[in-house]
Amino acid sequence: MCPKITILTRSGPREAVAPLILSVSRATDVPAFYMPWFMKRLEEGYVRWVNPFNGKNQYVSLSRLRAVVFWSKNPRSLLENLDKLSKYDFSFYVQYTLNDYVSEGLEPMVPDIGSRIDTFVNLAAHIGRERVVWRFDPLILARDLRPEDLLEKIRLVGDAVRGHTEKLVFSFADIDNYRNVRARLEKERLSYRNFTAAEMDFMAREIASLCAGWGITAATCGEKVDLAAHGIAHNRCIDDELILRISSGDRRLGAFLRGDVSGQLDLFSPSGAKALTSLKDKGQREACGCVWSKDIGAYNTCCHMCVYCYANSSPEAVTRNRKSIKEDNDALVG
Question: In the chain, what are the domain boundaries?
Answer without folding.
Answer: 4-324
